[in-house]
């Protein structure tokens, strides 16, 4: 079969493929909400905090449209609204409208548009304050016995929890046995298909899990939470309560103590799970107060959910720690076992120093990553997001040679392309063969032909036609 | 591995150009670094070039690889703060040296840019070639020139094949001028240059200008010869009579006639050592020249050049207004400017109204140059808070908190710097931080405290 | 496209003008209290749009300019923290900080210093200083050069009720040029009073919106639609720009706003009448020119400050069209 045609993407394209929240695509949660019933959503919109958090997850144009409509008492004629956007904005405008309609924020209507009344009143309440829903969380009174935890300890706690989960995942295949996360987390990991049990009971990371590891923390968090939401439905938990609690958390303030008294039974049950994920901290399992960590408060923003991704807590390293040279050598300024383990997925590590790991990207190391189901784009985007500030002065950021080579290694893997189809053989005569072949060529379904052996291979789509053609012909010949 | 962090910073500090065009800093640095790295010896005899320029800058071909990062002083904690402070302090001192009173500048400027297009420009001692570098710098020069001289006009003349060649007519629109030199293949260097022909052509194009504008010729000259039809000293005398200033940036070596042209007409002559120096020399010609108080021979006192002009400030019509005919092209158009005297519609400003002859300018055009006239008074560095009874806690500009304890200053570097990071406006007695001090004097030209 | 943006708001707090505005019936005015509550809703909406959006509020008081609030916490008040579970906490801190710092200032006035011109220039320059600092700190905290600079996306909103102060012509123009240099958009909302020539130019030169609020009771809707969209999204949502821009200047001698002026050729100072000596650069002008200009001069300059433009051609037809 013919060799693969090699297409080398421009360096700029790579960033598009990563699904960060800043891109044109909607947020994961928004997509999830769109699949919910109108009833569920309307109940959700009763809480001002939920409205505010969902509003933040919308795309800029959608946000602006909502804001434009929010303070109007009368519905707006569709024609008037269409005049708000410029000519370039037409397409995004229609996308935005249909998106909002699927969220039941702005019901679809050919004539006049008005916001969902529940959403409108809650959103107004969120912005102007007031009301009595108490949806932004009830702070506990300060008492001297239990001062609210300081921000550093919250960060350390969140980081420890989160890295435990990731580190468990990454080292599951290596034979090491790091600290196990709680049973609930393990179940969630298994349910989301990030890990699977192989020999009866030991959990092993799956290829989806490897891909997961290379995602930015924000996406990882939402991926797990969405899984949690789906599980909640099965566990007979009220989805609206689960959702509104999550969204409330995202509107709380870091470093404050909140009271559990106003929470419903479902929400109280959630506290334990969220504690395991590192979203909230409680002094004891039965404590009547909880404090959200940075993981929770940044759910609806794009600021980094984890303060510092290193064990030593050196602030500058949060921005990136990888230096990659044109000779495929990689220097990672880190001593964090998780980061080293993740790098180990696609780098041959050579030497290790107290704060530095030196390695080399080789064909074998990348092949290993590819075999685990990681794609070249994911490797590249991981390198880009974690590039050292010094690297960011380069343009393009990563050496082009290395980027291209990683993609080429991926293409090598795809050298053989399989396609389903039918082999047509045993034609009675060369004329017969050519007659059918011509017909198949007209349909453009021939994948391969060999006239000396009088056979050709056609794709699945063309089979019905070809068979019909042959049958008609042989019927005519017999007649 | 990545280069040591201090390096780029360090280069800026050793860069000792006195040009007050701040934007050149970074580009210079890179181009100079390039020149250093080249390390290529060109065996041309240009030894007598060194008179006109700063001694510390080496020629492009004899520069050794200087380890600029070694000259940066780190303090005991290995930081570069001392060097940064030194750099800021230099800027402050320069401002303090500048006269506080408003200088008179000739702001309505007319300039003919003469480009050498002779075969000497194909020399490769400047990268990529003298010609390409000249075109690149000429473009930057024109942009920056119009930025600082909004009411000026530039014409372009080329010298090649022994002739002067008009490349761009006098125009006040930067786009027109840039377009004139945008097509490289039309400017391909060839033959001998002729200074006399080019100057005569430039002089002719400026002969009709009103008396209150300055007339200047700036020549970029790469050749060591000139091929003239007559006596160039006659041309020089004519220029003196017309009060045309000639400035020359030579790329090869100093020539007597070039120096004479500049010296006698009151212009500036310089020989470029390397790419960075070339740009410095060229960009030094951008700020409006201060008018000499001493009358030059041939000019009967500077005041005669001054005049009062009548100008109109138009109203701009949006492109949604009903279309009407414009007086300049007789075309139906929606947008345009209305002459305040006769209400005729013109397409662009600044211009002269075709109907009533009024000079129409938009006020931002004029206002762009006012900061030359009313500079902000330099702020005084606050050395201690003992005299101030109730010091403000935050910068009056950006509200950043001041530090409480004085920072330790490194000897001479701290001269003119406040150990508290406070700089006080002499007018309104408000304190400002270092960043705002620089920003107010270099960009805003208006003190946030007293609004002056 | 979805990146955080910075908004600096300059509020005109001239009590005289606000009193006039509240009394105005045609068009119906708005009281300062109503205005502030609508403004707070707008500011909350800006913060609501994105968690990383930043905000700074400056108050232009008579003869004074004060920073009322900034999201980086330069202004703190002593208001006790209330535990209100019904409001998003950042909104509450924002609202209470602004209200208490305004009240503090206004209490200390009592109409005494009311005659001083408002500190609009001070506010503008402070806003620029603040933006300059936030941009430079964003730059120095790495994230790699141009990327961070672009991500701040700053703009300034001026909400004005006072008429032009011609004495501030040069400082305002200087602020506009520095705004252009910093790539700051200046939006202008004129809530009460006649068109403001200088602010019109500010909005025009920086590519911002100039909105003359005609129905002050619908102010919030005006602000949501015209001033909330960040510069990046304005390519998609059309924002009202002004009809016509007045390019008039103020003369240096009497601070009048002129449409035909006399300009010194040396320093470009503008005068409303022919003068023998330039007051800025002390250049003497030739008598010949003075005589000529006096003869050719249009009718005596109007005595009032900032005369309104003659109401020329609403439909643009008075333009003399050339025959043929």
UniProtKB/TrEMBL annotation, chain A:
- Protein location: Nucleus
- Where are the compositionally biased (Polar residues) regions? 12-23
Species source reads Polyporus arcularius HHB13444
The Transcription factor Tfb2 C-terminal domain covers which part of the protein? 404-470
Output the GO biological process annotations, alphabetical, semicolon-separated: nucleotide-excision repair; transcription by RNA polymerase II
**What family is it from?**
Belongs to the TFB2 family.
Name listed for the protein in its UniProt record? RNA polymerase II transcription factor B subunit 2
Keywords, A to Z, come to: DNA damage, DNA repair, Nucleus, Transcription, Transcription regulation
The record's region (Disordered) falls at: 1-26, 294-315
Q: Which residues form the signal peptide?
A: none
Q: What the protein does?
A: Component of the general transcription and DNA repair factor IIH (TFIIH) core complex which is involved in general and transcription-coupled nucleotide excision repair (NER) of damaged DNA.
Q: Which domain of life is it from?
A: Eukaryota
State the NCBIfam families in the record.
tfb2
Entry-linked Pfam families:
Tfb2, Tfb2_C
Instruction: Kindly list the GO CC terms recorded for this protein.
Output: transcription factor TFIIH core complex; transcription factor TFIIH holo complex
Q: Name one GO molecular function term.
A: double-stranded DNA binding
Principal subcellular localisation of the protein: nucleus
Automatic annotation (TrEMBL), chain B:
Zinc finger intervals, C4-type: 339-356
What Gene Ontology terms describe where this protein resides (cellular component)?
transcription factor TFIIH core complex; transcription factor TFIIH holo complex
Give the compositionally biased regions (Basic and acidic residues).
Answer: 40-56
Record Gene3D superfamilies:
von Willebrand factor, type A domain, Zinc/RING finger domain, C3HC4 (zinc finger)
Q: Which residues form the VWFA domain?
A: 110-261
Per the record, the GO terms for biological process are:
DNA-templated transcription; nucleotide-excision repair; regulation of transcription by RNA polymerase II
Q: Where are the residues of the annotated region Disordered? A: 1-56
Q: Which GO terms describe its molecular function?
A: zinc ion binding
Superkingdom is: Eukaryota
- Location of this chain's protein in the cell: Nucleus
The UniProt keyword set, sorted, is:
DNA damage, DNA repair, Metal-binding, Nucleus, Transcription, Transcription regulation, Zinc, Zinc-finger
Quote the InterPro entries the UniProt record gives.
Answer: C1-like_sf, Ssl1-like, TFIIH_C1-like_dom, TFIIH_SSL1/p44, VWF_A, vWFA_dom_sf, Znf_C2H2_type, Znf_RING/FYVE/PHD
Extract the coiled-coil ranges from the record.
Answer: none
List, alphabetically, the NCBIfam families matched.
ssl1
Q: Which family does the similarity line name?
A: Belongs to the GTF2H2 family.
Q: What does this protein do?
A: Component of the general transcription and DNA repair factor IIH (TFIIH) core complex, which is involved in general and transcription-coupled nucleotide excision repair (NER) of damaged DNA and, when complexed to TFIIK, in RNA transcription by RNA polymerase II.
Q: Which PANTHER family match?
A: GENERAL TRANSCRIPTION FACTOR IIH SUBUNIT 2 (PTHR12695), GENERAL TRANSCRIPTION FACTOR IIH SUBUNIT 2-RELATED (PTHR12695:SF2)
Give the protein's recorded name.
General transcription and DNA repair factor IIH
What is the species of this protein?
Polyporus arcularius HHB13444
TrEMBL record, chain C:
Q: Which GO terms describe its molecular function?
A: zinc ion binding
Q: Where is the composition biased (Pro residues)?
A: 300-311
Q: Name one GO biological process term.
A: nucleotide-excision repair
Q: Where in the cell is it found?
A: Nucleus
Q: Which UniProt keywords apply?
A: DNA damage, DNA repair, Metal-binding, Nucleus, Transcription, Transcription regulation, Zinc, Zinc-finger
Q: Name one GO cellular component term.
A: transcription factor TFIIH core complex
Q: What does this protein do?
A: Component of the general transcription and DNA repair factor IIH (TFIIH) core complex, which is involved in general and transcription-coupled nucleotide excision repair (NER) of damaged DNA and, when complexed to TFIIK, in RNA transcription by RNA polymerase II. In NER, TFIIH acts by opening DNA around the lesion to allow the excision of the damaged oligonucleotide and its replacement by a new DNA fragment. In transcription, TFIIH has an essential role in transcription initiation.
How this chain assembles, per its entry, is: Component of the 7-subunit TFIIH core complex composed of XPB/SSL2, XPD/RAD3, SSL1, TFB1, TFB2, TFB4 and TFB5, which is active in NER. The core complex associates with the 3-subunit CTD-kinase module TFIIK composed of CCL1, KIN28 and TFB3 to form the 10-subunit holoenzyme (holo-TFIIH) active in transcription.
What is the name listed in the Swiss-Prot or TrEMBL entry for this protein?
General transcription and DNA repair factor IIH subunit TFB4
Organism, as annotated: Polyporus arcularius HHB13444
Q: What is the lineage of its organism?
A: Eukaryota, Fungi, Dikarya, Basidiomycota, Agaricomycotina
């Amino acid at each position: 079969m013919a060799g693969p045609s090699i297409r080398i993407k421009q360096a700029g394209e790579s960033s598009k493929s990563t699904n960060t929240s800043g891109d044109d695509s909607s947020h994961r949660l928004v997509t999830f909400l769109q699949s919910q019933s109108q009833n569920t959503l309307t109940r959700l919109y009763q809480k001002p905090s939920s409205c505010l958090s969902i509003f933040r997850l919308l795309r800029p144009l959608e946000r602006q449209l909502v804001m434009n409509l929010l303070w109007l008492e009368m519905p707006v004629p569709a024609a008037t609204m269409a005049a708000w956007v410029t000519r370039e904005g037409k397409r995004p405008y229609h996308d935005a409208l249909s998106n909002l309609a699927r969220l039941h924020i702005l019901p679809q209507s050919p004539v006049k548009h008005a916001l969902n009344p529940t959403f409108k009143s809650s959103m107004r309440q969120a912005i102007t304050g007031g009301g009595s829903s108490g949806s932004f969380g009830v702070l506990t009174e300060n008492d001297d016995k239990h001062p609210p935890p300081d921000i550093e300890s919250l960060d350390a706690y969140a980081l420890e929890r989160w890295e435990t989960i990731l580190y468990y995942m990454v080292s599951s295949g290596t034979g090491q046995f790091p600290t196990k996360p709680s049973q609930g987390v393990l179940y969630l990991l298994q349910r989301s298909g990030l890990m699977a049990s192989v020999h009866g009971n030991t959990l092993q990371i799956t290829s989806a899990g490897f891909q997961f590891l290379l995602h930015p923390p924000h996406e990882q968090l939402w991926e797990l939470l969405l899984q949690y939401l789906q599980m909640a439905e099965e566990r007979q938990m009220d989805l609206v309560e689960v959702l509104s609690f999550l969204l409330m958390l995202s509107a709380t303030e870091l470093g404050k103590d909140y009271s559990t008294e106003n929470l419903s039974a479902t929400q109280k049950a959630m506290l334990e799970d969220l504690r395991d994920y590192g979203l909230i901290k409680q002094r004891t399992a039965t404590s009547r107060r909880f404090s959200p960590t940075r993981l929770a408060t940044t759910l609806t923003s794009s600021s980094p959910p984890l303060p510092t991704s290193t064990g030593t807590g050196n602030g500058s390293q949060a921005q990136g720690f990888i230096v990659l040279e044109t000779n495929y050598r990689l220097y990672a300024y880190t001593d964090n076992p998780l980061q080293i383990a993740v790098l180990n997925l696609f780098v041959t590590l050579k030497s290790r120093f107290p704060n530095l790991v030196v390695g080399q990207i080789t064909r074998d190391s990348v092949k290993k990553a590819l075999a685990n189901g990681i794609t070249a784009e994911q490797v590249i985007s991981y390198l880009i997001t974690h590039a050292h500030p010094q690297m960011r002065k380069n343009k393009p950021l990563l050496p082009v040679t290395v980027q291209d080579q990683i993609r080429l290694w991926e293409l090598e893997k795809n050298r053989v392309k399989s396609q389903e189809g039918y082999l047509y053989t045993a034609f009675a005569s060369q004329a017969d063969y050519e007659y059918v072949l011509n017909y198949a060529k007209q349909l453009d379904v021939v994948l391969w032909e060999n006239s000396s052996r009088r056979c050709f291979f056609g794709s699945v789509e063309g089979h019905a036609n070809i068979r019909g053609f042959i049958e008609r012909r042989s019927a005519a010949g017999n007649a | 591995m990545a280069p040591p962090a201090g390096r780029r910073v360090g280069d800026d500090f050793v860069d000792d150009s006195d040009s007050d065009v701040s934007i050149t800093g970074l580009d210079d640095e890179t181009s100079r670094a390039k020149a250093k790295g080249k390390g290529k010896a060109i065996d041309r005899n240009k030894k007598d070039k060194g008179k006109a320029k700063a001694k510390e800058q080496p020629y492009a071909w004899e520069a050794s690889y200087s380890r600029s990062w070694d000259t940066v002083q780190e303090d005991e904690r290995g930081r570069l703060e001392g060097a940064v402070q030194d750099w800021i302090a230099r800027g402050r001192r320069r401002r303090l040296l500048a006269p506080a009173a408003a200088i008179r500048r000739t702001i309505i400027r007319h300039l003919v840019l003469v480009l050498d297009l002779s075969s000497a420009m194909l020399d490769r001692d400047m990268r990529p070639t003298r010609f390409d570098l000249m075109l690149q710098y000429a473009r930057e020069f024109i942009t920056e020139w119009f930025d600082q001289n909004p009411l000026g006009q530039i014409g372009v003349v080329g010298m090649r094949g022994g002739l002067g060649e008009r490349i761009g007519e006098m125009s006040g629109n930067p786009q027109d001028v840039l377009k004139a030199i945008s097509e490289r293949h039309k400017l391909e260097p060839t033959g001998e240059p002729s200074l006399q022909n080019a100057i005569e052509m430039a002089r002719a194009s400026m002969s009709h200008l009103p008396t209150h504008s300055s007339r200047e010729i700036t020549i970029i000259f790469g050749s060591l010869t000139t091929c003239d039809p007559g006596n160039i000293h006659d041309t020089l005398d004519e220029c003196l009579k017309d009060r045309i200033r000639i400035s020359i940036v030579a790329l090869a070596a100093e020539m007597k006639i070039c120096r004479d042209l500049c010296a006698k007409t009151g212009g500036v002559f310089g020989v470029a050592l390397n790419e960075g120096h070339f740009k410095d020399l060229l960009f030094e010609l951008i700020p409006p020249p201060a008018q000499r108080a001493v009358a030059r021979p041939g000019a009967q006192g500077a005041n005669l050049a001054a005049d009062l002009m009548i100008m109109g400030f138009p109203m701009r019509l949006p492109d949604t207004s009903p279309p009407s005919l414009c007086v300049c092209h007789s075309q139906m158009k929606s947008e345009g400017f209305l002459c305040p005297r006769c209400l005729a519609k013109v397409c662009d400003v600044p211009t002269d109204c075709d109907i009533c002859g009024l000079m129409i300018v938009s006020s931002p055009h004029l206002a762009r140059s006012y900061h030359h006239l009313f500079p902000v008074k330099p702020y005084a560095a606050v050395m201690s808070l003992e005299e101030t009874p109730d010091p403000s806690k935050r910068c009056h500009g950006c509200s950043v908190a001041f530090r409480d304890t004085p920072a330790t200053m490194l000897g001479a570097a701290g001269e003119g710097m406040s150990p508290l990071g406070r700089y006080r406006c002499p007018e309104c007695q408000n304190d400002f931080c270092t960043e705002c001090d620089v920003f107010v004097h270099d960009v805003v030209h208006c003190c946030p405290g007293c609004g002056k | 496209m979805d990146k955080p943006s910075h908004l600096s708001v300059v509020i005109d707090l001239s009590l005289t003008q606000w009193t006039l505005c509240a009394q105005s019936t045609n068009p119906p005015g708005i009281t300062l209290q109503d205005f502030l509550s609508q403004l707070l809703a707008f500011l909350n909406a800006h913060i609501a749009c994105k968690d990383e959006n930043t905000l700074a509020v400056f108050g232009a008081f008579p003869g004074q300019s004060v920073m009322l609030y900034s999201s980086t916490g330069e202004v703190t008040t002593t208001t006790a923290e209330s535990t209100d579970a019904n409001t998003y906490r950042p909104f509450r801190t924002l609202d209470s900080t602004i209200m208490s710092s305004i009240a503090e200032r206004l209490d200390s006035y009592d109409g005494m210093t009311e005659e001083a011109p408002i500190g609009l220039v001070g506010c503008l320059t402070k806003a620029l200083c603040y933006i300059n600092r936030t941009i430079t700190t964003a730059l120095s905290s790495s994230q790699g050069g141009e990327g961070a600079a672009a991500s701040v996306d700053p703009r300034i909103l001026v909400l004005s009720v006072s008429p032009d102060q011609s004495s501030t012509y040069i400082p305002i123009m200087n602020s506009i040029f520095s705004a252009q240099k910093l790539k700051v958009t200046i939006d202008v909302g004129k809530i009460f009073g006649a068109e403001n020539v200088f602010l019109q130019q500010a909005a025009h030169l920086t590519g911002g919106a100039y909105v003359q609020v005609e129905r002050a009771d619908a102010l919030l809707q005006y602000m949501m639609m015209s001033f909330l969209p960040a510069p990046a999204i304005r390519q998609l949502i059309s924002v009202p720009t002004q009809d016509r821009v007045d390019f008039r200047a103020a003369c240096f001698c009497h601070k009048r706003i002129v449409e035909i002026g006399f300009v010194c050729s040396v320093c470009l100072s503008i005068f409303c009448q022919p003068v023998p000596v330039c007051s800025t650069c002390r250049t003497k002008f030739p008598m010949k020119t003075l005589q000529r200009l006096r003869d050719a001069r249009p009718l005596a300059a109007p005595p009032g400050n900032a005369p309104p433009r003659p109401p020329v051609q609403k439909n643009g037809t008075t333009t003399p069209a050339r025959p043929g």
